[in-house]
């Protein structure tokens, strides 16, 4: 899709009742910042307000989202206590996940290239996931001494079961698109060139259905998946506060920038 000339970190367009939201920091592999998450939330809320039938969440450039921008995280730790990380997640990141879950229409993640850390869990928060052949899924947060976030702990267990979920969350190996599909993390894998058209075709089919049926189905299935209240995104943010205060986390972030 054509990128808005303003080059905002998140841009969106509406076409035929479908809202396509584009993560637009390709020079940084669409890594997450607070303004980016604020714009993403606003774009999702706008999709609800205009009564769209489906949302496609995708990204510019070679990668979907490489997670938290670690340069920003390093600066944060220079000027604030590590506990600030949990507060930021709770205040600015979790509302995006809450919005995805509460929308009346499904959100389809169209993933190309890397989806790592918070980017992996952002994709997992969506209702449906389509992966291009180049997609690589890297939970990665355990390497930084952190835990799953953005509702990802529940989403991961729901998708693959506890034993596989903990293997993925703690694993050092990335999952290819084929591996992710085999594990049940993505609905389908297509050629990169077909990624957007496949997501659009799925969104078109959803839009052809009565909106009340789609909204009711999403609400009931989301409710069924969250009958057990723990762990909630709020709990995850609290756990990130504990993890971020541990000196090993600061060391791992610093090691990331060491040659």
What can be said about the biggest beta sheet? 6 strands, mixed
Helix count from the secondary structure assignment: 11
Q: How many structural units, i.e. domains?
A: 1
CATH superfamily: 2-enoyl-CoA Hydratase, Chain A, domain 1
Give the name of the CATH architecture. Answer: Alpha-Beta Complex
Task: Please report the first level of CATH classification, the CATH class.
Answer: Alpha Beta
Q: Tell me the fraction of residues in β-strands, as a range.
A: 15-25%
Q: What is the number of E strands?
A: 9
Q: From the alpha-carbon coordinates, what is the Rg to the nearest angstrom?
A: 17 Å
What can you tell me about this protein's structure?
By secondary structure, the chain is α/β, with parallel strands linked by helices. The chain has a single domain (10-257), classed as 2-enoyl-CoA Hydratase, Chain A, domain 1 (Alpha-Beta Complex). The protein contains 11 helices and 9 strands. α2 (70-79) packs across α11 (247-257) and α3 runs antiparallel to α10. It is globular. Mean pLDDT is 88; it is low at 1-5.
């Amino acid at each position: 899709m054509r990128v808005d000339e303003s080059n905002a970190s998140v841009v969106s367009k509406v076409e035929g009742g479908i809202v396509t939201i584009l993560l637009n920091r390709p020079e940084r592999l669409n890594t997450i910042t607070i303004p980016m998450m604020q714009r993403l939330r606003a774009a999702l809320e706008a999709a609800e307000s205009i009564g769209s039938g489906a949302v496609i969440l995708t990204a510019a450039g070679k990668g979907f989202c490489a997670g938290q921008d670690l340069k920003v995280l390093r600066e944060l730790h220079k000027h604030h206590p590590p506990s600030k990380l949990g507060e930021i997640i709770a205040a600015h990141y979790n509302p995006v996940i809450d919005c995805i879950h509460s929308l009346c229409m499904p959100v389809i993640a169209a993933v190309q290239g890397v989806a790592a850390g918070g980017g992996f869990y952002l994709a997992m928060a969506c209702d449906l996931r389509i992966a291009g052949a180049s997609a690589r899924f890297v939970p990665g947060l355990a390497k930084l001494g952190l835990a799953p976030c953005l509702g990802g702990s529940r989403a991961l267990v729901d998708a693959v079961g506890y034993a596989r979920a903990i293997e993925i969350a703690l694993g050092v190996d990335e999952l290819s698109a084929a591996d992710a599909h085999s594990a049940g993390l993505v609905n389908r894998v297509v050629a990169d060139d077909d990624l957007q058209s496949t997501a659009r075709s799925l969104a078109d089919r959803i839009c052809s259905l009565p909106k009340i049926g789609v909204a009711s189905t999403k609400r009931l299935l989301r409710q069924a998946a969250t009958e057990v209240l723990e762990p909630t995104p709020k709990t995850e943010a609290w756990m990130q506060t504990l993890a971020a205060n541990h000196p090993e986390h600061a060391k791992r972030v610093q090691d990331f920038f060491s040659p």
